[in-house]
Write the structure tokens for this entry.
Amino acid sequence: MLALLLLACDESSDAVEEADAAASIDEAAVTWHQDVAPIVARSCVGCHVDGGIAPFALDSFSSAAPMASAMAAAVEEGRMPPWGAQQTDECTPRLGWKDDLRLSDAEKTTLRSWADSGAPEGDVATAVALPDPVSLALDGANQQLSPVQSYVTSGDSDEFTCFVLDPALDQARWLTGVQVLPDNEKVVHHALIFAIDRDDATALAGDDGLYDCFGGIGSDELSLVGAWAPGAVPATVPENSGMPIEPDQVFVMQIHYHPAGEVADPDATAIELRWIDEEPEMEAVLALVGNAGSERDGLLPGPNDDNGVEFRIPAGAVGHTEEMAFTIQSRSADYRVFLAGTHMHYVGTDMAIWLEEEGKEPECLVQTPAWDFNWQRGYAYDADIDELPRLNKGDTLRMRCTYDNSLDNAGVREALADQGLSEPRDVYLGEETLDEMCLGIFGVLY
Ligand code: HEC
């Protein structure tokens, strides 16, 4: 499938001061128990809980009240909850997203009013019911796989470790859902799960069952089957579909760790799987399309090209773009896109993907205008199969990645520091920390 698609070729306190005086809500009336707690329970507590990935809890009045101004500022400025897929002047996806944690304007105003009136508690006796916590369990899961051995993170630099997980299938089966069961939630930042050949996995990991891996998992023949970030609901495919997995395949789970200094407790993050044995009506695939590793594909001429069309982001370049286009060649194609995502490394700042069908206005599938490597994920459309964007023979996927290879880019500073460097250097296509990619992630049904 991958081959088919590829063939073608400020400071928050300022904001607090600028309180929205025009807010129409009666500020005195906004309280934690009556108004704020339900919003925070739905959109924040998945991470902001003791032992969670966020550095502080927001799951009670006493933990949230001192943070009220910071909370209002973080949601107004779009930093929280972390959610990359935003609407912009050039990209308004036709469909909404599933499990969208973002706050409505009215909810943002509620947080702001609460903060500006001194974060009152309200009356616990008449507290409004909190929404049920979002269930993170994978309904109907029928297999759990744990790593052969746990991994101990240490230091201040991010680490990327791949674990081999063998489902030991004796015949082909179809995967309909994957959930990651994080063990040491303080250090597990995000995870990608791939299916690859058992022999390849053995060659990479040996008997340890794990190996270092940053940009890629070290195999070209791979299919992505799931992506996870803290608080994420299980990755599932639409009804009547499944991802085929063969008996000679195993899973590789790539975990991005944020070590908690010195030496942290070991981590033995596991996965839960849901299988069906009957061939489903449609196959589902997560396809990676774009430029990554040594492949250079579909690249269009762009700024700073020196030697013909090249993927090179000169040191210091700001607003540098790489654009690429892939035309669907497969004859039988009538793919439906149920999920879209973007992927770059630390130099990237913005990525957008359009679907171009002859004679029609290009349709923007997704844009992540404030790309943050730390919060990458796929975004699933909240729609029936009939409404999903379609990909047919002759349609083109066009992608544009924007990079800032200067010290103004926090990602560049982080990546350079990680490598013990102080000045940006020219960046090329590759899989290391200081290389770049421009990759679209597409969940497709066919
Ligand atoms: C997916 C996990 C996640 C969710 C959901 C989340 N946060 Fe956070 N939050 C974090 C992490 C991790 C940090 C610390 C690192 C950082 O700043 O990115 C953080 C930091 C913060 C900070 C301090 C830094 C800043 O940017 O101001 C505030 C305030 C905050 N969160 C408020 C919220 C509120 C309010 C919500 C809900 C509307 C929320 N967060 C939802 C993970 C999350």
Residues 12, 43-44, 46-48, 53-55, 67, 70-71, 74-75, 79-82, 101, 103, 230-231 surround heme C (CB under 6 Å). Residues 1-25 have pLDDT under 50 and may be disordered. The CA atoms of residues 415 and 433 lie 6 Å apart.
